[in-house]
Design goal:
This protein is an alpha+beta fold. The chain is 25% helix and 25% strand. It comes from Amycolatopsis silviterrae.
């Protein structure tokens, strides 16, 4: 049984490896053997269980709520509605517009309406069914292309438009192109599909506050939203990161946080809240569905002259991060190419569909899909090899983006594409059924099977853009335990499976030369670390830990210099020793620390950025850029529409591979999520706004039989502004994997296939028509 006490004990990493080594993860063995404490495993004596009553309608007015029958059930301790919210009634990442519990209206299927706490989960669920809500159903508005039309019912208190992003670069009206292609593309609503459902344990504190152990991506942003809803000062709300079973953006927004804490404070006892898989589909935001129109103009020899694009993202019922997602989508509409003229309009709108927000790639996935699809269409119109068209227009250092910012770091687009082009193609499929579309289903023995090869490249900013003052804080303490120097690291960095805990230990070992490092649990008792998102966490937490360590290292070398008479500049730290320039030990680190401790807290900030001009979209908005490219090889049974991805090769610049094994894992994981979006993953919402497939039975994700060989070419072009020259790794693979697969399918079938995900009938029916 996992207890809170077992969670908060620090996990020692053992002998720490240094930066650049494939260090084993300290949590790896526990996770694969089932001993790791995820948030859903938490238990404490005297706790009760909570559940949520959710709306069956996508749009309805609430006339009344009767909780009396639920309260009368044996084992039920509390039933709460919006009237019981002790503080602010709403919260939100960018705008505090999402109700803690629905007040007088529900705006999406699954919106929380009431809470129940009971002795056990089943009693709570059965009691929730006894709550009587008198709804007046309204006609839901579910088509994002119509919500801005005159006469459409206002969905959101602020209207139906979340944000309109305009980018004007060069002079599209005067740009002269020999060849023009247009295309309309659509991307469906993808779920993060993390394996660990939302869960948390709230414990009332003696000072009238509350402690929350919760799976999250950003503890301090959670605190910022949570405390006002509880009517408590921030110092009385303490959050500790519980074991996170994946995130990918789906844990940036609040889920169980306010509800569990409300009940704990009301009852004066611990409250556990853990979603099942069905509820998880309603308990977090999803990737924005997108409808996009692209127009590319080029010269006869394939030089891009201009790009015009219009994007509409469905933000669902509430704001979440939609204003930033649509901005990010627009920033990279023209892809990893040199485009002298651009006219870009991006709109995020409200609908009565489920709320959408952060997901790996954060808007750039949608725009990369549209751009790369239209680039292949342009290559076909020019009669040019698609990879040659990309090479001819590849972004380089110094390229000016549509936002007017020049790329001042590495931009190895050509190198990535060339590496993929030069890689040998996999052999033709044999007679083994598992190597053919349909696999063991024995649908084909090779007849009707065609092979296609497709390329795509993606670019995305790393970190927060648009003038955000990003920060990450780390406290490093060096002490002697049993004669051995031990460094402890304390940050609020959320370990979501990406390996930031391991990297913190590697940085500490490298900078202080110590072999023993302890990474303490992340919580809000230390300064903000920002979100585990935007491919920023390794960059930012490394900067913070490195800064704290270097301050301690200077102090140790000062002490060693005083003791040895050697200048500090002639000394270094390694293997728990102070070494001279010849590598000979001068003294032990343990002797320098003694019975004292050496400690430093460091706040790291990246270089400043600017907001973009609202009329032109111009501004130096980004700190850095990351690039990835994919080559997909697919076999397609055109008669049945079945697809086998034979190989999905990646080339990516990572700046510095801090942990090469972990980097490869991130690239493989991102590529598989892109494969899912290309071929199977989509939350289906009907005309009434109801989610039709909230389960892993009906929401399909790739299995081991769907995942092909994924050879990876790692490039290390150091970034001039980052610690160790590193760059973000997690998001870029999701940008180019989806369009590479669809481009390969188009090559194999000759069909336009404008929508992602593609389904068998999209191929089979079109091929047979």
């Amino acid at each position: 049984m996992v207890t809170v006490d077992s969670l908060v004990r620090a996990a020692e990493t053992g002998k720490a490896a240094g930066v650049g080594e494939s260090a084993l993860r300290p949590d790896g063995t526990a996770k694969v053997t089932g001993r790791f404490a995820y948030s859903s495993d938490l238990w404490i004596e005297g706790m009760v269980w909570a559940t949520t009553l959710r709306s069956p309608y996508a749009a309805a007015r609430i006339r009344s709520i009767d909780t009396s029958k639920a309260l009368a059930q044996p084992g039920v301790h509390a039933v709460l509605t919006h009237e019981d919210v002790p503080g602010a009634k709403t919260y939100g990442m960018k705008s505090a517009d999402q109700p803690v519990l629905a007040v007088d209206e529900v705006r999406y299927h699954g919106e929380p309406v009431a809470l129940v706490a009971a002795d056990d989960p089943e009693t709570a669920r059965q009691a929730a069914k006894l709550i009587i809500v008198d709804y007046e159903p309204l006609t839901p508005v579910t088509d994002p292309m119509t919500v801005l039309d005159d006469g459409v019912r206002p969905i959101h208190p602020a209207g139906n438009l979340v944000r309109h992003v305009k980018i004007r670069h060069g002079d599209v009206a005067r740009a002269k192109a020999d060849v023009v292609v247009t295309g309309e593309y659509e991307v469906g609503m993808q779920d993060q599909a993390f394996l660990g459902p939302e869960s948390g344990l709230a414990i009332p504190a003696e000072d009238g506050g509350v402690e929350l152990y919760v799976s999250s991506q950003w503890l301090h942003k959670d605190l910022e939203q949570l405390a006002p809803c509880l009517g408590l000062p921030p110092d009385k709300v303490r959050l500790t990161l519980a074991g996170v079973g994946g995130a990918f953006g789906g844990r940036e927004d609040l889920s169980v946080h306010v509800h569990a804490c409300m009940l704990a404070l009301r009852l004066g006892r611990p409250v556990k809240m853990s979603y099942n898989r069905y509820e998880s589909f309603f308990g977090h935001v999803h990737r924005h569905p997108a409808k996009m129109r692209y127009e590319h103009g080029a010269t006869k020899d394939g030089r891009l002259v201009y790009v015009k694009a219009r994007l509409v993202l469905d933000g669902g019922a509430y704001t979440s991060t939609s204003p930033v997602v649509i901005a990010n989508a627009c920033y990279f509409v023209t892809g990893a190419y040199d485009v002298p003229n651009a006219e870009i309009d991006g709109l995020a709108v409200y609908t009565n569909n489920p709320p959408c927000g952060a997901m790996r790639g954060f808007g750039a996935v949608q725009s990369a899909y549209g751009c790369e699809s239209n680039m292949d269409k342009l290559a076909h119109a020019l009669g040019m090899d698609p990879i040659e068209l990309r090479l001819r227009n590849a972004m380089t250092t110094g390229t000016v983006l549509p936002t007017g910012q020049a790329v001042d770091g590495p931009a190895p687009v050509a190198e990535l594409l060339q590496a993929l082009r030069d890689r040998p193609l996999p052999p033709a499929a044999g007679t083994d059924l598992l190597s053919l579309p349909g696999g063991a289903a024995n649908t084909t023995h090779g007849e009707g099977v065609r092979r296609g090869v497709g390329y795509a490249v993606g670019v995305k900013a790393i970190g927060y853009s648009g003038g955000v003052d990003d920060i990450s804080t780390a406290r490093v303490t060096l002490a002697v335990v049993n004669g051995t120097p031990v460094a402890s690291v304390h940050t609020a960095a959320a370990e979501c499976g990406q390996g930031v805990t391991t990297v913190q230990a590697q940085v500490t070992s490298t900078e202080l030369g110590v072999s023993r490092v302890v990474v303490l649990p992340a919580d809000t008792q230390i300064g903000d670390a920002g979100s585990a998102s935007a491919s920023r966490m390794t960059w930012m937490s490394t900067g913070a830990v490195q800064g704290a360590c270097r301050h301690i290292a200077r102090e140790l070398l000062r002490r060693a210099a005083e003791a040895s008479g050697l200048p500090a500049s002639a000394l270094s730290l390694a293997s728990d020793q102070v070494l001279d320039t010849s590598g000979h030990p001068v003294c032990a680190v343990a002797d320098l620390v003694g019975s004292d401790t050496v400690e430093h807290t460091f706040e790291y900030r990246h270089r400043p950025t600017q907001g973009i001009d609202p009329e032109t979209g111009q501004g130096d908005a980004h700190i850095a850029f990351a690039f990835a490219a994919h080559r997909a090889v697919v076999d397609v049974d055109v008669e049945l529409g079945l697809v086998k991805v034979v190989e999905l090769a990646t080339a990516q610049d990572v700046g510095k591979a801090m942990n090469p094994l972990a980097v490869e894992g991130q690239i493989e994981g991102g590529s598989v999520q892109g494969l899912g979006l290309a071929l199977m993953e989509e939350i289906l919402v009907d005309a009434e706004g109801r989610v039709r497939n909230p389960s892993f039975t009906d929401y399909l994700i790739p299995t081991v039989l769907d995942v092909p060989p994924m050879p990876i070419s790692l490039f290390e072009f150091p970034h001039p502004d980052s610690p160790y020259g590193l760059n973000g790794v997690g998001e870029p693979p999701t940008l180019s994997s989806t369009p590479a697969i669809l481009n390969a399918l188009r090559t194999a079938t000759g069909l336009p296939l404008p929508n992602a995900p593609i389904r068998p009938d999209d191929i089979a029916l079109a091929a047979g028509s």
